[in-house]
Design brief:
single chain; about 80 residues; alpha+beta; Hypothetical Protein, Haloacid Dehalogenase-like Hydrolase, Chain: A, domain 2; 2 helices; about 35% helix; globular
């Protein structure tokens, strides 16, 4: 995802899921040459409700993004296309 896409996605998430309010968000570029991440990724930390986790999972599926969820962190990114 390019930077504008990530910013728009983050705005959509915060506007659509009030349970995400109070979390910490980081937009980070992938700088590793052989990374699976295409462009930028979103990292979130905080205590996520079950509804917030479900919302994020459903959003990732809808937008065809990869998601990694841990008890107090979530990472959403676009998988790099194979050459």
């Amino acid at each position: 995802m390019n930077l504008n896409e990530v910013v728009d996605l983050l705005k959509e998430m915060v506007d659509s899921c009030s349970d995400l309010n109070g979390g910490d968000f980081l937009i980070a570029p992938s700088k590793v040459a052989q990374s699976r991440v295409e462009g930028y990724e979103i990292h979130m930390t905080g205590k996520f409700s079950e509804s917030a986790k479900r919302y994020l999972n459903d959003l990732a599926i809808k937008k065809k993004l990869a998601i990694i969820q841990h008890p107090e962190s979530v990472m959403i990114y676009q998988v790099r296309s194979k050459p």
